[in-house]
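User: Here's a chain of 151 residues. Predict its fold as tokens.
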Amino acid sequence: MDIKVTNVLNPYAEATYSIRSASLPKENELIAKIQGMIEEFNKKYEGIAVAKGTFKQKMPAFEKSDDTYIPEVFKRAAEKLGVKYEINSFHAGAETHIYCQHKNAKGETFIPFLMGLADLYNMHSADEKMDYKSFLKGYKLLSQFFFEFNK
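Assistant: Prediction complete.
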């Protein structure tokens, strides 16, 4: 095909990409990498196509807290019920981090702690499903967590 033909494809396209990270430096590293790809594209296709990148923050950055109190309470609750657990930091689905920039009535900074309390399969698909027995077990874990936290 002759590269000068412009009526075959729409000359405009847009892509949106959501960047979530538990590490602000890693997020900035990814943005820099994307900007580098845009620059490479523009050099390679100079005079034919132009790519632009716009980055904006929708939610405040969330950095994992060094505070171990809540994870320790969670461990105690899980161990009392014989529940296997894994504690790690991630961003996907963790919209609770919008509170991490706020303080409670005592002036303490909120520290989000997201608990997965059920086994989910095929997430974000038409076949997404949950094992209801694991959900009931998760409810017991949440109840035990609440008990441990308040004793």
